[in-house]
Amino acid sequence: MDLAPVESLGYFVPELILGVAVIGTILADLLVRRKEVLAVAALVAVVLSMLASVLMLADTPDTTLFNRMIVHDQFSLYFKIIFGLAAFATIWMSMDSREVDQVSQGEYYALLLASTLGMYFMATSTNLLMSYLALEFVSLTSYVLTGMLRNNRRSGEASLKYLIYGGVASGTMIYGMSWIFGLAGTMDYAGINEALTTSSPASSLALFIGVVLTLSGLGYKIAAVPFHMWAPDVYTGAPIPITAFLSVGSKAAGFALLLRFFYPALSSLGDDGQWQALGGAGWPQIILVLSMLSMTIGNLAALQQDNIKRLLAYSSVAHAGYMLMGLVVLSDEGLRSVLFYLVMYYMMNIGAFAIVMLVANATGREDFDSFRGLAWRGGALPAAAMAVFLFSLAGIPPFAGFIGKFYLFAAVIRAEMYTLALVGALNSVVSLYYYARIVRAMFLDEPDGSEETVSLDWSTGGLVAVLTVGTVVFGLYWTPVIGLADRSVRFFLG
Amino acid sequence: MEIGLTHFLVVSTMVFLAGLFCVLTRRNAIGILMGVELILNSANLNYLAFSRYSSVNYDGQMFAIFVIMLAAAEAAIGLAIVLGIYQTFHTIDVEATDTLRL
Questions:
Q1: B27 sits in which H/E element
Q2: Which residue of A has its CA nearest to B69?
Q3: How many CB atoms lie within 10 A of CB A27?
Q4: Which residue of B has its CA nearest to A139?
Q5: Chain B interface, best mutation among A146, A175, A234, A311, by max B CB count within 10 A
Q6: Distance between CA atoms of A151 and A102, rounded to whole angstroms?
Q7: CA triplet A113, A117, A121: central angle to 5 degrees?
Q8: Which of A227, A299, A481, B61 gives a 20 to 30 Å CA spacing to B70?
């Protein structure tokens, strides 16, 4: 079913709510004197938007909107809920963050909501032009959010680096897209798929170049090696809530675009749930290499880090590698495990950054020393929660991260790619070392008396409690999430 | 000799490589942003050429217009960030602003 602009609006409610909220926040900033209202308003808008997505989950028909520019299907709804959750946690963290207090509140929340809206479009676009516009929408707002702390040198430097890497990556991406457009003669994903199904093998080299160049923009968004260089610097320089937002929201958005580009556009689905790459483009091999490199380089670099934000940045590069494993196997099972892992990753990673923010609020630093003896200077509960998040990130049972990794590895082993599974397993062992190092510093190292005490306030405590409970509960009972992920591996191209 | 699709593609590839070279060699932040503009314009040339020679509609032209618009937006944000960098570091040399390290 294809819908024209006016009929499309009914399926466009989550986006409309966010769009109105963006403008509303900017206007309200001029009128309201108590700026705390803006954060609450942004929080309400995100919840409403998420609610609209959840309500649509129950059996609305798949359809393309706005003359085939974007699509409404289960896959996009699943991702919209993840983006909503990420924005929700980010706004909550921002309300408690000392860093964010210094910035102009109206601009900050308007940009945050706009970035979330851009992510919605990244998950829904089914057209090369729309994909590019959505990616730039998210990128441009992220550059500004990263550089929000105006009198902080690190923040400015991070945003400059983000801008330069982002500009080059997205420029390279549209150059690659232009080759795909030239070969297929259309921007539409369904049209590209149709053209590639009937294409001659003579054009496969041009297609290969186009796909590799396009991958540079997508790989940059998910922070996969070798497009990850911006991540450590940007994660270190950005305000902590924004770091959390980029590491979860931006990465999930990148995966949404990546999945929709490679699966329904560049592959075709067989009857048995197995996909077939089209036109001799050979992209599964490239992703296989990227996946192994991301895991290995991310984990090895994380071993030497002294700044916790930087360590978590390299850990997020490694996690992009784990999730890419699900793309290599070319099966619905692999896709399902990527979708499932993103939810688990959301809880444990945002949780870890919330604790980093708590410590940074009290000490003004985020290096290893600020975590030394955390459990013995008032922060026993945050330290315990951090241990849960870190062990979950390492993939230790019975936490959520273990189940997520279990599904990914199961998909890889079922596809009989034993080398990839072995590399992934070895990497998980390596990662345990640096996660456990933080846990050891928090519990086993004695504080030398010079460190500030860290206490848990009600607001941050609430968020941390929810995320901890989620990490533990989904490690024991995950059936609803995997069921939803299973239902959501259903692309619609019209 | 008739000017055909191949000529346009060769020119656009040269512009793309020039842009990439510019990005990799410049130390001045503005110079790097100009390299990014070259990359974007090489893509524009490709879209226009493909649209002219092998497509039935105006999708390619439309893409090029959007790219021009976004390049302007990116330049605006880029220059604002570079200005902020200049105010804190008193230079826009990207090697001098490289303080985030291990």
A1: none
A2: A133
A3: 12
A4: B74
A5: A175
A6: 10
A7: 165
A8: A227
Domain range for residue B9? 5-89
What is the pLDDT at residue A200? 62
> How many residues can be counted in chain A?
494
Does residue B80 sit within a domain? yes
- Distance to chain B for A107, nearest Cα, Å: 14
* Domain-located, residue B98: no
Residue ranges of chain B with pLDDT lower than 50?
none
Distance of residue A140 Cα from the nearest chain B Cα, in angstroms: 7
A306/B94 CB distance under 8 A: no
Q: What is the DSSP string of A380-446?
A: HHHHHHHHHHHHHHHT-TTSHHHHHHHHHHHHHHHTT-HHHHHHHHHHHHHHHHHHHHHHHHHHTSP
Q: Nearest chain B Cα to A187, which residue?
A: B59
**ipTM score assigned to the predicted complex:** 0.95
In a domain, B19, yes or no: yes
Q: How many structural domains compose chain B? A: 1
- 3 state DSSP class of A133: helix
The Cβ of residue A334 has, within 10 Å, a number of other Cβ atoms equal to 24
pLDDT for residue A198 is more than 90? no
Q: Hunting for tokens 């995100």 — which residue is that?
A: A46
The structure tokens 């590069």 sit at A317
Q: How confident is the model at residue A25 (pLDDT cuts 50, 70, 90)?
A: very high
Q: Any idea what the CATH number is for the domain that residue B61 is in?
A: 1.10.287.3510
CB atoms within 10 A of CB A387: 20
Instruction: Give residue A451's pLDDT band: very low, low, confident or very high (50, 70, 90).
Output: confident
Six-digit token string for A468: 């901890």
Residue-level pLDDT at A292: 96
Cα separation of A283 and A132, whole Å?
Answer: 20
Q: How confident is the model at residue A195 (pLDDT cuts 50, 70, 90)?
A: confident
Q: Spell out the residues 6+ positions from residue A122 whose beta carbon is closer than 8 angstroms to its own.
A: A131, A134, A135, A138, A253, A254, A256, A257
Banded model confidence at residue A202, pLDDT cuts 50, 70, 90: low
* Phi, psi (deg, nearest 5) at residue A268: -125, 145
Q: Is residue B50 part of a domain?
A: yes
Which H or E run contains A315? Answer: helix A308-328
The alpha-carbon gap from B3 to the nearest alpha carbon of chain A, in Å, equals 17
Give the pTM.
0.95
Higher per-residue pLDDT: A235 or A185: A235
Reported confidence tier of residue A450, pLDDT bands at 50, 70, 90: confident
Domain boundaries, chain A: 5-488
